[in-house]
């Protein structure tokens, strides 16, 4: 099931220079967090516990990623969620994005009391 293209992957996004981020669904970062935790735990119930989300929300996040990417990122084998080749290919990039976003937000939290409004 290497790089299986989902036939229903029809989400299209405008690509205007400098505005690409505006085309991303607002739930994209949350979906990426669900992707990483499910890949790490390989267990939906454990991902639910860690993230404090419902099973349906995590499934919706994974479906969003699959719709955007146009590929299946997990298979379910004997009750364990396993990354497909396409999922493995994106795993490191998604983890880096989440880690960088967290570091950036932590940096903002550290300086926010010092910010002055004009």
What is the element layout, followed by pairings?
Elements: H1 28-41, H2 44-51, H3 55-69, E1 74-77, E2 80-83, H4 85-111
Antiparallel strand pairs: 1-2
Helix pairs in contact: 1-2, 1-3, 1-4
Describe the structure.
The chain is mostly helical and 118 residues long. 54% of the residues lie in helices and 7% in strands. The chain has four helices and two strands, in the order H-H-H-E-E-H. The protein has helices at residues 28-41, 44-51, 55-69, 85-111, and strands spanning 74-77, 80-83. The longest helix is centred in the last third of the chain and has 27 residues, at 85-111.
What is the gist of this entry?
This protein has 118 residues and is mainly alpha-helical. It has a single domain, classed as Winged helix-like DNA-binding domain superfamily/Winged helix DNA-binding domain (Arc Repressor Mutant, subunit A).
Could you give a short account of the major beta sheet? 2 strands, antiparallel
Mean pLDDT: 81
Q: Percent range for helical residues?
A: 40-55%
| CATH homologous superfamily classification | Winged helix-like DNA-binding domain superfamily/Winged helix DNA-binding domain
CATH topology heading? Arc Repressor Mutant, subunit A
| Span between termini | 55 Å
CATH architecture: Orthogonal Bundle
Query: How would you describe the oligomerization state of the chains in this entry?
Result: single chain
> Any idea how many domains?
1
Query: Strand order, biggest sheet?
Result: 1-2
Can you count the beta strands? 2
The CATH C-level name is: Mainly Alpha
């Amino acid at each position: 099931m290497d790089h299986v293209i989902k036939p229903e992957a029809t989400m299209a996004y405008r690509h205007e220079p400098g505005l690409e981020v505006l085309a991303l669904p607002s739930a994209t970062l949350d979906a990426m967090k669900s992707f990483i935790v499910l890949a790490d735990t390989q267990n939906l119930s454990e991902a639910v516990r860690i993230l404090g989300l419902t099973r349906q929300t995590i499934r919706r996040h994974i479906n969003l990623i699959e719709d955007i990417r146009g590929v299946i990122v997990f298979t379910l084998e004997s009750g364990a969620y396993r990354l497909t080749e396409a999922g493995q290919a994106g795993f490191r990039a998604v983890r880096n994005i989440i880690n960088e976003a967290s570091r950036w937000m932590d940096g903002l939290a550290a300086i926010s009391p010092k910010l002055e409004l004009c």
